[in-house]
Amino acid sequence: MATQAFDQETFAQAIEDNDTVIVDFWADWCGPCKRFAPVFDDASDKHPDVVFGKVDTEDQRALAGGLGIQSIPTLMAFRGGYLVYREAGAMSGPQFEELVKAVKALDIEKLKEQANAQQEGAEA
């Protein structure tokens, strides 16, 4: 699946509608972002079961600001609607491939149980 450009609406919809979503926050002036772009695009071709999205932080300032993006590139990964990874910095191809595999391997039911337990603990 090709990489998709996300705005505020499509970002939220992608997370809601898909099991696994990985998002790259970037800007055209960012050298590390430009070097990482082919790695991200290659992974999107290798993993058609994952939605790969890009957010241009210059064009989507409200979205990036609302998510507290302070450094780029920043990667976020979601499984079953839950944020499971967030880190600033570019990765090599092999590093990113390992991340994608790790995110896909997460047990979604276990994630839900942990999230519910944390929420119940916070309400107590």
From TrEMBL:
- Provide the Thioredoxin domain boundaries: 1-105
Sorted UniProt keywords: Disulfide bond, Redox-active center
Where do the TM regions start and end?
Answer: none
Q: Report if keyword Transport is assigned.
A: no
Q: Which Pfam families does the entry link to?
A: Thioredoxin
Which residue positions does UniProt flag as site: Deprotonates C-terminal active site Cys? 24
- On whether Disulfide bond is a keyword of this UniProt record, the answer is yes
Q: Which InterPro entries match?
A: Thioredoxin (IPR005746), Thioredoxin-like_sf (IPR036249), Thioredoxin_CS (IPR017937), Thioredoxin_domain (IPR013766)
Query: Which residues carry the site feature described as Contributes to redox potential value?
Result: 31-32
Recorded superkingdom: Bacteria
What S-S linkages are listed for this chain? 30-33
Q: Which residues form the active site?
A: 30 (nucleophile), 33 (nucleophile)
MF GO annotations:
protein-disulfide reductase activity
Q: What protein family is recorded?
A: Belongs to the thioredoxin family.
Q: What is this protein called?
A: Thioredoxin
